[in-house]
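Q: Okay, next protein. This is Heterodisulfide reductase, subunit C from Desulfofervidus auxilii. I've checked the sequence twice, so it should be correct. Can you predict the 3D structure?
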Amino acid sequence: MFTADFLKEVNQHSGEKVQLCFQCFKCSLGCPVSFAMDYLPHQLLRMVQMGLKDRVLHSHTIWVCAACETCTTRCPNHIDIARVIDTLRQMAIKQGKPAEKPIVAFHKAFLNSVRRHGKLNEWELMAEYKLRSTRFLDDLWLIPEMWKRKKLFLRIRGVHKKSEIKKIFKKAKAWNN
Ligand code: SF4
Ligand code: SF4
């Protein structure tokens, strides 16, 4: 189904000009996780241009993207594709259309930990993710390895200027409302 204002909406929230994409394919050629996507990055942008809102917001691609920004640095038209995809994720959550529920659970747990402390706390992330996803036994074998690599801290350490983090989340919330 075609949605007339979709391109405008995505441009407005991402601050990018998706219509500039001329389908050169450079973004998709550099994407390290394209093998797991249902639509390649350049196809996703084409679908945004065509106003295929439902298909884009239901896609697995927007959740598979690792936000590595390789595509962004390769685009000859300077489209920040990673930013566009992040915008699409937020739109999918807002409209209740996320295709990957466990990834959405991880996404929310990650953001909540950063919101609280200004940085990530891995214990907290794991606990909230498991509660949200109800995948209690998945990936438990990773804990000893994370501990060995000093990725797990018993004490929650935050950043100094938490007020700055609050401002960022406040701004994001204003957009979401
Ligand atoms: S930011 Fe996402 S879409 Fe772009 S190259 Fe990285 S994983 Fe692929
Ligand atoms: S690199 Fe840029 S212009 Fe080329 S297909 Fe990707 S988004 Fe479009």
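A: Here is a summary of the prediction. The radius of gyration is 18 Å. Residues 21-27, 42, 45, 74-77, 79, 81 surround iron/sulfur cluster (ligand 2) (CB under 6 Å).
Q: Noted. On to the next one.
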